[in-house]
Every structure is written in structure tokens, then in C-alpha cells.
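[09:14] KT: can someone run the structure on this one? pasting the chain below
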Amino acid sequence: MKPNNPIMNECYNTNPERTPESDAKTSSTASNHLVIVGGGSAAFAATTRAAGKGWRVTLINDGLPIGGTCVNVGCVPSKTLIRAAEAHHRAKHHPFAGIESTSEVSDFGAITRQTQELVETLRQEKYLDVVNDLPGVRIIEGRARFLSSREVEVAGETLIADRVIIATGTRTHVPDIPGLAEIDYLITDTAFELPAAPKSLLVLGGRYIALECAQMFARLGVKTTVLQRSDRILPTETAALTDALTGYLRDEGLAIQTGVEIQAVRRGGDGVEVEARVGGKRQVFTAERLLLATGRSPNTEGLNLDVAGVALDEQGFIQVDEQLQTSRSDIYAAGDVVGDPMFVYTAAYEGALAAENACTASGTTPRERDYNPLPWVVFTDPQVAGVGLDQAEAEAAGHDAETVTLPMSKVPRALAARDTRGFLQLIRDRRTDRILGARALAPEGSELMMEVSLALRHGMTAKDLASMFHPYLTLSEAVKLAALSFGKDVDKLSCCAT
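[09:31] RB: done, C-alpha cells below
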């Protein structure tokens, strides 16, 4: 995608003592120069951290506009459209007696245009405006290419760096399927900008991006079918969770087909045909459009990383140690380009950590990355969210693990909202009573994870959580009730359970 951000080929801060010309003349000779390849969350977190430590920073961006995946084609547009679809869906399907309401998608393009307006606003306010106030920061638009571990060529200029951070992110993985190259398929880069909704849609994939997009389009009136290779959607989660989510999505009219072996893709009468084998039998799926949600591939091609001495794994992701240092001591990497976990908040964390380690004086002990505890969310409705270990993971780690499952029908807030879909699970160690993790399948279930995350961080027990004040008729009361369930029957407790 061609960058459409408001900056020109280069962007500088407004420090009156510096000019683009003076920077260009000194870029190859000045000390404490950090070159960052990439323009997303990891790159900008690294930029702000390095600038705060007094380093001069040159940030090189290519491909997506400044801000990278999250603000342009990921988190911001997807969650905005998910909320729009939710508003439409709830207006048509609310559970309250005596209230009649309807909803109509009268202009799909207006929804995507409003979404793109927010994208452009946040790109300017949260990225460009932020670095514009930082001393010593320069942005160059162009494709970077390593000439050595400390020499980076871009836009006809050779930059000499004291340290380099690679934060080039990922893109949609395009599987090797016969006929796919001849199809005008969608990816998230293009799906969130459609001026009109297709009548029907096939979604290849069954993990979080696929499910979020599929439900969003289905709620906005698109006949949508999910084609998943594994025998379950979200196959790394428990069957109880994924089976329940599958049921809720199908209840809304979303078609979900698992165990699909794609054989070929071709143009068809309705737009596109996907030939597959399901349960050993040939089956053909048709729709107007096809959306790929088949994982992510790292943006490492064309960087000349072999010349720089940077090692990659078998999938092309950059290999780093716990300090985010690559196989070259003067080159670091951060964000999605180093592989899982691939979240915007972990990318920002890694970018700042990489800059901290890269820009710290020699002899100082570098910091290691620490993802414990790491909460995560799948923004379906109901949401899937988790933090820490599940039952199987806890047992594998040697814990005497115990899990309680609290149906949302036991939570007063859910009863009042007349939406009791799903459950909350808490996992503890029986011997110590310490909380080990949580999983939620619930409307706004992600809002429950931060309390459990703090409990994990501070070694809290189920008794600790049960003894805390939780305002009555809040969703967070589910955490208290689940903690109480380790030793009590919540059906025998009063509303303000103790």
C-alpha cells in the first residue's frame, strides 16, 4: 500500500537549531545515532525511548503509512467496525420487553469512511505529532537495505548507525493455493476500506483475525462462511470454550466449516469458488469475495539481512535473545517481526526495551523481556480473553491445578443486561491457593482480565480476590464470585456475596 500520510519524503522535528540540510550532512559522522527500520508501534516506542536518552534517531518507513499495522489496517479500523456492527446488531436483537427498535445499514461506505477518518486522526495525533516534538528525530520514507551491520542505504543516502533496531512488522500470509494468485482476494489492508459491502464472503482461517472479521461482516448483512483447516476454531484453546463460541456465532447465522482442506481457488459464477475436501469428500464453497486471514508473514525480504549478519528462523522471523539482540550485537529487533506474541502492546513494550538496551552504555546490565502476565483478547461477541495458564498448561508446569467455571448466568450484571452468554474460569494451585490464570468467554469478557493479571503479578490467592470489594452489579463481580466458588456454592450466597 502506498503511504498516504501527510508528511513528505522526510519529516523533522521543529528544533530551530537543526535543519534537514545539517542533519543530512552529519548523519554519517555524528555519535549516538540509532537507525530504526520500520514505522509502526515498536518503531515509535523505540524512537521515543531513544530520544529521551539523548540519542539521535533516524526512522525509515516503507509500505504502510506511518503507524504501521495497528492504526492503519489492524486494531483501530477493525475494532471501530466491530463496534459499528455491534450497534446495528443490538438494535435489531435486544432482549428487553416493551421496546421495539430496528436498524438498517443504509450506507456501508459511510461506515468505512468514518473509520478511515479516525485512522487518519490517530495516525497524526499519536504518531507524527508525538515525534515532531522530539529533538533529534528524522523520518525518511523509503526501502531500507543493509550494506553492513552499521550501514543502511535508503533513498540514495547511506546512513551510518551506532545501533540499529529492526521493527518492520508482518503482513498477511498468502498460502500457496492453486489459483489464488488469479483472484482479487481481500486482506485486512483492503477489507476495512471497502466502499460497499459484498453480498457474500468466504473467510479463510479460524483464529482471531478471521473470527473478528467474519462476525463483523455477518452482522453488517454479509452472508459469511468461515473455512478453518483445524477441527476447531481457535484450536489452541479448550474445546469447551471453542465449542461454545462456535455455537454463539452460528446462532447469529455465521456459517463455520472446520476440517477444511483447500484444494484450489478460482473465479466462479458468484465471484469466487473454493474447492476443498471436508471429511474426505469434495465440496465447493462460493461467494462474491474471499478474505484471507491465514496468519502473518514477517517483513524481512529485501533488507539484505544476510549482509548484516542477522539470523532468521525457518519462517523468516528475526531471531533475538531475551534482550531483543539479534545475532549481531549492534542490531536489535522488536515487534511482530520477531514472532509471537504479536500484539500492539507487546510490540510497543519490545520497541522501548530494545531501545533501552541498544542505547545503554556498555557495562550496564541489559533488561530482559518479561511477558508474565500477558493478557490477550479476541474481539468476537462474546469476547474470548485470557491471562496466565489454563488447566492443561498449569498441570504441565507441575502445579496441582484446579479450575472453577462460573457461568455468566450467576453474575447479577449479566442477568440485569439479559445477556448471560459464556463463562469465566479461574485456575489456582490447590496447595498454595495462588491464582495461576483465567479464561473468559463473555460479553466484554476482556474487562475481567486486568484484575486477574494484577493478581498474577503480585502473587495473590483466590482468598485474596474473594475478600476484595467488588461493586454490586458490575461485571468485575464475576471475578469475586469465581474466586468464592473454590470453596462455596454461589447459588447459596446472597446477592452481595461474601
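[09:33] KT: thanks! The mean pLDDT is 92.
[09:34] RB: yep, looked fine to me
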